[in-house]
Amino acid sequence: MKSINYFLIVCCLMVVCFAAQSKNIIHYVNPFIGTTDNGHTFPGASYPFGMVQPGPQTGNFSWDYCAGYRYEDTKIWGFSQNRLNGTGVPDMGDLLVMPFSGKPTDDFKSDYKKDSEKASPGYYEVKLTGLAVNNSVNVELTASPHVAMHRYLFEEGNPTIYIDFQSGLIGSQKSYSSQKSYNNRVVVSDIQVIDEYTVTGHQRVRAWVERDVFYVIKFDKPIISLESIPDDNNKEYRKIFHFDRNVKQVQMKIAFSMTGIEGAKKNLITEINHWNFEKVRLAAENKWEEYLSRVQIEGSDSQKTNFYTSMYHLLIQPNNIADVDGQYRGPTDLVSKSPFGKYYSTLSLWDTYRAANPMYTILTPELVPDMVNSMLLHAEAYGYLPIWTLWGKETYCMIGNHAVPIVVEACLKKLPGIDSERAYNLIKKSLTISHNKYDSDIYDKYGYFPFDIVPEESVSRTLECSYDDYCAAQLAKNQGKDGDYKFFMKRSGYYKNLFDPVTGLMRGKDSKGVWRTPFNPYHLSHAEDIGGDYTEGNAWQYTWHVQQDINGLIKLMGGKQNASVKLDSLFNIDKREIQNGFVSDVTGLIGQYAHGNEPSHHVVYIYSMIGKNHRTAELVREIFDRFYLPKPNGLCGNDDCGQMSAWYMFSALGFYPVNPVSKEYIIGAPQIPKAKIRLQNGKIFTMIAHNLSETNKYVNSVKLNGKEVTGYVITYDDIMHGGTLEFEMKAN
Fold first, then answer.
1. Which CATH architecture has domain 25-292?
2. Peptide bond before 518: cis, by omega within 30 degrees of 0?
3. I need a surface site. Which of 54, 73, 360, 390 has the fewest CB within 10 A?
4. 256 closest CA partner among 266, 264, 244
């Protein structure tokens, strides 16, 4: 009996200690990381996978403001209700709100105290000091999944709130001025003041996509008077709300829906039917704790900050844009009801299939079926799987159809709730019909995309489509569809048709089988800006984009020794030799390797695959030391909806999914001493890096549950079964 009591006491103490540790995790998250240079992250409040992200806007009208904020800016333009995390295209930034007291300046932009600015998961705070004489307003923001909540403290009283209903983030426009584009962003608008506390409305906006925004705004104090400010087109989309001059605090709730005002009302009533700001903040923080505490790491404070901020950025999206009752507006503008209650969008699939989605299958597997089924609903409505969706609408951004590897990965990992047969049929349809940026007939006729017929990104499209075909083949094989398996496997080898044995690089070829001449392997290209055979890259970077058949690529290069020499050249060629066609996404350079852009992300792990793990270890450490730093300009490239962050997390743990659908992870070199992953099946997977230090960065041996790992590979099942992965680190 005594031993049982002792056991219970120990268990209770362990639970208490674990809870105490996990409660502190959100304090390691620094939302300001990546908010300048070209990380394109934001410090606003958010809820995991939520629809709204209220936060500060400090600029617009350029690529720098894809998320609407840069850390170094000295003025705040207002506080908008949604935004994108780390993307390379601007949008969102709906309903820009600016509180003030007194007579405002004409542009409604405010100075603020930089040292008052605070951000943490689910919360943002800042003190405004400009905009009006003696103006001093403390702003606090928090959020539920569909509702932004604002709390303003007006030190001088006389509370006034300016709302720009036409607000939104747009890029620099080539055909006409950015200001004209901004003024014409709202296609349809209907703003209704329902009563002294309530404003409702609908607007159709046109930026990256054309989409509908329905909203309900609730104030906790009565509106005393209202002014309208016409814009250059004489449209009254800007309004000033006045409140009793003796009031010092005003709170506001803004609920969004993509289906209708009734949907916004349901979202508001269901999620925040009170005025307790702290309750909403605590709920958001607790939800972040729940997710972040699924991984417990050991290491320095800066390591924890980098890791948990990466995990935070990973879990901001994809976003569930269905109303609380499951209603959503699909890609064809029809309102439907999700059979599983959710509908995920903000699917940056060209980026996230590589590491972000594989990380979801480990950390949040209970959410993955809904993500996949959202893609299947899109395909059934639109004709093929999504490419890059925003608020349910197709942007056609980037190339390939990388919903395919994500769907296949989930099916092969046997995540429950996905109809594998339905999924395969939609995959096959998506890959065998022609659609935007994809001509199936040309692809099959030539075995590649000829640059004289497909003048933009012909090489990159061939390579990326080959990977999607490989993924389809694996699911066909799993379902016993032998004919389809052979068909898609043949296609998966089309990459070989563009390998030039003379240069040892992937090179454009025309419809007559003639190589592109002249050929400059350093020339960066991008379809939207300067054309060319590659997507945000050059021949050196894209040659390695054969995730499905690294061994086949090595064979084309003449074996491991030749491939090793080629890899060395990739990382050693002086970056100053990159020529022409500046592409802003090609950043984080080590030689020709560009860590700031996704096609390079798996490449350092090829060294492990050819028996040179020591080189993988060196490069991972260099990337960590140079390109992931715990400060506003600490990211070397766009976070791209969590992909950059997921690369960091996998690499910190010591392995990476070079080929995501293979269910295999290639061993690298861990960068933190210990991590425990609490799996959703109740088991724990532990990684330990013995003797890891600044000098001990090389892997001497690897053991899984006490048995030596050979071949530098572990599997998804190894992780899901729980256990311990141990690295013995050494100095050289």
1. Distorted Sandwich (2.70)
2. yes
3. 73
4. 264
